[in-house]
Amino acid sequence: MPADGDEAAELEVEGPSRVSSRRRFLARAGVGVALVGLGAAGAEAIRAATVSEPRPRAVVAPSSAVRIDGVTVVDPADGSRVAGRSILVDGGRVRAVTATADAPSSGARVIDGTGRFAVPGYNEMHTHVLQLPDTELGLTLMLAQGITGMRQMEGSPELLADRAQQRLGLDEYAPQLLGMPGDLLLPFNAASVEGVREEIARQWDQGADFIKMILTEPEVFFAAVDEVHRRGLRIAGHLPPAVHIEDAAAAGFDSIEHLGTGQSVFLTLSSESQALWAQEPTGLPFQAWVARLPFAAEFFDAFLKESFLGPATSTTDEAQIALLRRAFETYSEERTDALGRSFADNGVWHCPTLVGLRGKYRPDGPEFREDPWLQRAPADQRERQQADAEAFRAAPQADRDVLHEYYERCVRTVGRIAAAGTRIMSGTDTSGRGVARSIHEEFRELGRAGLSPLEVLRSTTTAPAEYLGRGDRMGRIVPGADADLLLLAADPLQSVENLATVCTVVRAGHVHPIDALDARVGALLATA
């Protein structure tokens, strides 16, 4: 096998002559795809012979009537609290919200909610839980955190078909599925403007709720945005290396995840933006012929996830560190505020997944050692966390300092664009639960960014409802809304920490005390 420099020369793309470690990795991925493609015919036979049995069908059972008395109802829409209320739920819907003193005798089961605060259920707007081979544990863990709705951020024709046949395991112990895409947009299925239009049409036919962008040429990216909007869908995900975040905003890219992915946002926010962008490789990481090989997409997808879900030190070299350092030295608050206003003006939402970024850029932080979930987590999660921390600590201290600053700049940037009017949605980029990656941790980081407790509550309730066009069914506790709500032990408008004091979860009208959910999680862990 040739040396890295030879690989880069063989798969040369546009950009500076100095090839970064990220670029070298992607070049190796291209060579690997080529080798795997030679055995594609045999691989297809193997895959066909090992297809798993269809998942059993699962539905949400009808709920009986329940009345919760004496609660303080919190409305994220206006920030109001109304004490002494009764909430009647039946058949999966909120039927009435009245003063407890006036609550009629309805024959419903009565729950004493005195001293509790009722809030709408939380919505996890960036999860990958349905990609797990066994989803039951991940879904139950989400429910135990108060998550009653979720946006699945990676789909496939198979997952979309399973949803149509109710084979995703979504019962009353699972959050409601709010949306799911089809295949990710990559050079393998979106190599040209015409190709991306055909792929979007395919996913439309398959029943995708939105389109997930990962990596394409710029002209394909903007054609995808136009085609998605022409069909009345939304597009969300990453920004390809050559697409500037301000141009994506002007095009109306609907939901930017992870601040766009990578360091490009900080090149844009620098007062020396043009000079720094000139040093950033922006071409695709392989030649077009690689994308035409059989199973190229499957190989690249698996290889990419395995290599990039770990700490940033595994894919960052000296040139990138220097570029980041200069970007931070020239960070412009004025440019950040202007960009935030542009997001607001163009209706561009953000799901920053701060805890996901924290796991990549500071996995050596104390929160990863002190998280109560650490000892309870499945062995593979604990081992991965330990390996990531060790790999990160092995990097030079100066490099780690820059990567630590990267994360702190992400937190600061989220706060500034939110203050400028950008709509923020909460999400974790996990498969249900990870060490220091719960939705409650995301709330804390959003609070640290400068969002008020009410703004954090909105990021997980009314904001997702508005983004999805479901304001009449979710995000508030009002008659006619889905009966997805939580009882908290403390006032969520007083402190972000109080959002984690979940005592009871009501999902589609089914009442789950937190102790019962914790016991269910323990039983699932014991038999995993």
Number of helices: 22
Give the N-terminus to C-terminus distance in angstroms: 41 Å
Give the helix proportion (percent range).
40-55%
Major β-sheet annotation: 8 strands, mixed
Let me know the number of strands: 15
Percentage of residues in strands? 15-25%
Would you tell me the overall average pLDDT?
87
Q: What structural class should be given to the helix and strand makeup?
A: alpha/beta
Shape assignment: globular
Rg, alpha carbons: 24 Å
Low-pLDDT parts are 1-51
Features:
alpha/beta, disordered N terminus, 4-stranded parallel sheet, 8-stranded mixed sheet, globular, single chain, 528 residues
Describe what this molecule looks like in 3D.
By secondary structure, the protein is of the alpha/beta class. The chain is 43% helix and 15% strand. The protein has 22 helices and 15 strands. Strands 1, 2, 3, 4, 5, 13, 14 and 15 form an eight-stranded mixed β-sheet that branches. Strands 9-10-11-12 form a four-stranded parallel β-sheet, covered by helices on one side. The relative contact order is 0.15.
Would you summarize the structure shown here?
Helix content is about 45%, strand content about 15%. It has about 525 residues and is α/β, with parallel strands linked by helices.
Blueprint of the fold:
Elements: H1 4-10, H2 21-37, H3 40-49, E1 66-75, E2 80-90, E3 93-99, E4 109-112, E5 117-120, E6 122-127, H4 136-144, E7 147-152, H5 157-164, E8 176-179, H6 193-206, E9 210-213, H7 218-230, E10 234-237, H8 245-251, E11 255-257, H9 264-268, H10 273-277, H11 288-291, H12 296-308, H13 318-329, H14 333-345, E12 349-351, H15 354-361, H16 366-370, H17 379-393, H18 397-419, H19 439-449, H20 453-459, H21 462-468, E13 485-488, E14 502-507, E15 510-513, H22 514-527
